[in-house]
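Dear Dr. H.,

I hope your travels went smoothly. While you were away I took the liberty of generating a structure for the chain from your last submission, since the lab meeting agenda had it listed for discussion. I wanted you to have the full record in hand beforehand rather than looking at slides cold. The sequence, exactly as received, is reproduced here:
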Amino acid sequence: MVTAESGAEIRREAGIPNLSIGSIQTISQIAKDEQLFVEEKVSGLNLNLDEPQETATRKKKKKSKSKKKKGPPQQTDPPTMPVADLSASGEFPEGEIQQYKDDNLWRTTSEEKRNLERLEQPNYNSLRLAAEVHRQVRNYIRQIVKPGMLMIDLCEALEDTVRRLISENGLKAGIAFPTGCSLNWVAAHWTPNTGDKTVLQYDDVMKLDFGTHIDGHIVDSAFTVAFNPMFDPLLEASREATNTGVKEAGIDVRLCDVGAAIQEVMESYEVEINGKVFQVKSIRNLNGHSIGSYQIHGEKSVPTVKGGEQTKMEEGEVYAIETFGSTGKGYVREDLECSHYMKNSDVGHIRLRLPRAKQLLATIDKNFSTLAFCKRYLDRLGETKYLMALKNLCDTGIVQPCPPVCDIKGSYVSQFEHTILLRPTCKEVVSRGDDY
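The corresponding predicted structure, in token form, is as follows:
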């Protein structure tokens, strides 16, 4: 017979605690609470209790992984990611949309015109990709440009960024023409040749004009940089004149009417420079232009003063609307060392006698075709001792030299430019950005 005392002795030897009735009731309640807790957890997880625990755990991990979806990649700072890689859909943003005026308002709702646009979407998308590259590059350049920079360093930084962001690929994608960084009275077509030591100064007025292209669809856009605020009215004159030209342009609009509107706005501005007041003049022999496939200057010119041709703009055309405001004569002439060149698009077969000229032409055909190029680009391709051959190509009319164009020395010129697309239903300013 086991007594209470002998039972306690047995429990002590077995390591079993001597529990009271109250302790036993407490342990029983804890066990019930734990069971309820486990049941609630199982219910919340919605597990199938008939499945093995390992399978249920696997499903839980799979579910949690599916929630961690990565968004589209973001551009780096400074920009290095190809713009094409930043769009999951492969579609790129439209530019600013402007409606046509008066008699062309019906185009907005025309189903026939919308169908025409659907057929052109691949070409539109190429143009928009080139425009997005242009926007990102110029936004970066605005951050780094400062007085004291070598002009050649600025151009190479800009062009290297274009090459990365557009995924340069021969004639399929790349730079459309050399970077123009013309200073002060030099209005256009100046870029430093190799070894040039020109330095950007605080009191300089610099026109940055560069182009991008995808499959020959070119975006041509330019802006002016001036650090001294006394030049602000000069910059504002050309910016607003360009915006006016963009606004006036459209299907069936006469080119001369666009020029008249540009001149009226441009010459309503004055600028005071070092105590002297100048009326801003629209440079009358520098024009905007239509843009063709692999051809920066198309057949039509957009004047920047009244008068000129009565030719009309047409549906589907692409135009560069650019204006130049000057404190000088408002008329430019060719001057300084030439850096820009371009193969003539309508030149036929011309027999070349110099073997070196034939070799250089083969390089031009392969890398530029009818796109403009400069001496630095030939240097980059490894071409050496090519000046005589290049002169021979120019003399025979195969290649056209495009020297810098300048107003009178001591004057200042500003420029702004946009590329517009005359779509069947509306006008798209493809190069428009937050900056201009």
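Two observations you may find useful: Residues 19-28, 40-51 have pLDDT under 50 and may be disordered. The two ends are 105 Å apart (CA to CA).

With kind regards,
E. W.
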